[in-house]
Design goal:
By secondary structure, this protein is an all-alpha fold. The protein has ten helices and three strands. The termini are far apart.
Length: 238
């Protein structure tokens, strides 16, 4: 009898462990869904902003609605970061396939992240570059694209993206680097900010290097001829 009870005890413990593991996994899956629904109306905080706050590092962010962010900056960012923003479903599958092919060929994959995928990383994931994080970005981006409008995705992205150490969002970046609100950015300033995003720690929009200025000039030219890259966030698509 004692032997039977001894055998049942470990089995009971195993069941409890499995149950808690299952509950933990369910919570991990459900949390992004719940948060995304919440973010339809509530301004979110990025995971990096949260980490900096918890560790006592300074964070500067001023949330502003999309209408208070220069259209020039909106265009420049979309042209620079995700030219298919209005057409893709959160993931640019053509770009993803190209990068997978590079990986299979033994080359280092680069790019393929849409604005929505970058937003998924900013809201839910970590900053290190690794394949696990990239794989998680895909379903999370599809979730964001399903629940949020394109307008809301761009609005949140422009308010939480990192533009420098402790500087988050277009308003804080505009005030820091140009001493003006995000609504008053010129096309040149918008292009400089947009082309700082791939490397916001190394690229200082207030003192752009010659290479940074060259990228900004190319971005501004492309933004001018890009057509209706913002047609999915017009008043009729709010």
């Amino acid at each position: 009898m004692k032997k039977a009870n001894a055998q049942r005890a470990p089995e009971s413990l195993k069941r409890r462990i499995r149950r808690w593991v299952l509950r933990g996994l369910t919570a991990l899956v459900a949390l992004p869904v719940v948060l995304t629904l919440l973010y339809t109306v509530v301004p979110p905080t990025s995971s990096l902003m949260l980490y900096r706050s918890i560790t006592g590092q300074p964070v500067w962010q001023e949330w502003v609605p999309l209408d208070e962010i220069s259209v020039s900056l909106q265009r420049s960012v979309v042209v620079s970061e995700d030219s298919t923003f209005c057409q893709n479903s959160g993931v640019d599958w053509t770009a993803v396939r190209r990068q997978v092919d590079k990986l299979l060929e033994g080359k280092r994959p680069r790019g393929a992240s849409t604005i929505t995928m970058q937003l998924a990383k900013n809201l839910f994931l970590w900053n290190d570059r690794d394949y696990v994080r990239k794989a998680l970005e895909v379903p999370l981006a599809m979730l964001l694209d399903t629940v949020l409008t394109k307008r809301r995705v761009l609005e949140i992205y422009l308010n939480v993206v990192e533009w420098g150490p402790g500087i988050y969002g277009a308003e804080a970046a505009s005030q820091t680097f140009f001493g003006k609100s995000a609504a008053k950015l010129s096309a040149t300033q918008a292009a400089i900010l947009a082309t700082a995003l791939p490397n916001p720690i190394a690229r200082n929009p207030a003192k752009p290097s010659s290479g940074h200025r060259r990228l900004a000039s190319i971005n501004r030219s492309r933004a001018q001829v890009a057509g209706e890259v913002l047609n999915c966030i017009s008043a009729g698509n709010r």
